[in-house]
C-alpha cells in the first residue's frame, strides 16, 4: 500500500566539489612547493565574497580528524549586536562540516540547509599541508562571521583544553551547561 506519498525528501547540493582535482589543476599544483601551493590557493578566492580559502599543517588536521570521529556535533556562539547567535556544527565526515544556526536546526532538523560548509582537502599530505575552503551559502553570513566560526571550530577540535567541551556536548549532553560554557569562552566568541 502506498501510504508515504506525501512525505518529501530533502536534498542539498554542495556548493563545490569534494574532490580538489575538480577545483584546481592538481597535476600542476603538485609540482609546486607547499608555500607556492598555499599562495595560489589563497589567491584563488581572495576576491570572492562567499568563499574563504585557508590551510593548516598536517599534524593539526590529524588531531582534528581524530577528535571528530566520535564527536561530530558542536555549538559555536557568535556575538552580535543583539547578544549571541548559536551555530550548530556537524562533521559529515572528517573532510566536510555543515554549519547552520541552532535555531534553524531545531526548527527543520534533518531538513535544515547549511549556512556555511567547510571542506578539508588532504591531497597535499605529503607536503604536510591540508587546504581548507569555507563556502558561505546563506548571504546573511559575513566573511568575518565565517572566519570566526571556522577558527573556533578548529580551536575546539584541536586544543585539548577546549576539546573537553566538545566531548561533553557529544557524550554527556545532559550535563553540558551552555551558560557556563558561554561565560568561560565569551572572549573568543
Describe the structure.
By secondary structure, this protein is an alpha+beta fold. It has one domain (21-185): Alpha-D-Glucose-1,6-Bisphosphate, Chain A, domain 4 (2-Layer Sandwich). Helix content is 37%, strand content 24%. The chain contains seven helices and six strands. The protein has helices at 26-29, 34-44, 58-68, 102-108, 143-158, 160-171, 178-185; strands spanning 51-57, 73-80, 83-93, 96-101, 116-121, 129-136. A six-stranded antiparallel beta sheet has the order 1-6-5-4-3-2, sandwiched between helices. A hairpin with a 2-residue loop joins strand 2 (73-80) and strand 3 (83-93). Helix 5 (143-158) crosses helix 6. The longest helix is centred in the C-terminal third of the chain and has 16 residues, at 143-158. It is globular and about 50 Å long. Mean pLDDT is 92; it is low at 1-11.
Topology:
Blueprint lengths: L25 H4 L4 H11 L6 E7 H11 L4 E8 L2 E11 L2 E6 H7 L7 E6 L7 E8 L6 H16 L1 H12 L6 H8 L4
Mean pLDDT across residues: 92
The portion of residues assigned to helices is 25-40%
Distance between the termini: 52 Å
What's the gyration radius in Å? 18 Å
CATH architecture: 2-Layer Sandwich
Give the strand order of the largest sheet, numbering strands 1, 2, ... along the chain.
Answer: 1-6-5-4-3-2
Structural class: alpha+beta
How would you briefly describe this protein structure?
By secondary structure, this protein is α+β, with helices and mostly antiparallel strands. 37% of the residues lie in helices and 24% in strands.
Key attributes of the depicted protein:
Alpha-D-Glucose-1,6-Bisphosphate, Chain A, domain 4; 6 strands; six-stranded antiparallel β-sheet; alpha+beta; single chain; 189 residues
Amino acid at each position: 500500500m502506498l501510504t508515504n506519498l506525501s512525505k518529501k525528501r530533502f536534498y542539498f547540493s554542495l556548493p563545490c566539489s569534494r574532490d580538489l582535482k575538480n577545483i584546481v589543476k592538481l597535476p600542476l599544483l603538485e609540482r609546486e612547493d607547499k608555500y607556492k601551493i598555499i599562495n595560489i590557493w589563497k589567491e584563488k578566492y581572495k576576491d570572492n565574497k562567499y568563499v574563504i580559502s585557508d590551510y593548516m599543517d598536517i599534524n593539526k588536521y590529524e588531531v582534528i580528524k581524530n577528535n571528530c570521529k566520535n564527536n561530530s556535533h558542536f555549538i559555536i556562539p557568535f556575538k552580535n549586536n543583539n547578544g549571541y547567535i548559536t551555530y550548530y556544527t556537524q562533521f559529515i565526515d572528517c573532510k566536510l562540516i555543515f554549519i547552520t544556526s541552532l535555531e534553524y536546526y531545531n526548527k527543520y532538523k534533518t531538513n535544515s540547509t547549511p549556512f556555511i560548509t567547510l571542506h578539508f582537502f588532504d591531497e597535499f599530505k605529503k607536503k604536510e599541508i591540508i587546504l581548507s575552503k569555507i563556502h558561505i551559502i546563506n548571504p546573511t553570513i559575513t566573511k568575518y562571521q565565517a572566519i570566526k566560526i571556522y577558527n573556533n571550530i578548529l580551536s575546539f577540535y584541536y586544543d585539548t583544553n577546549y576539546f573537553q567541551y566538545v566531548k561533553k556536548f557529544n557524550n554527556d549532553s545532559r550535563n553540558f551547561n551552555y551558560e557556563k560554557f558561554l561565560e568561560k569562552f565569551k572572549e573568543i566568541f
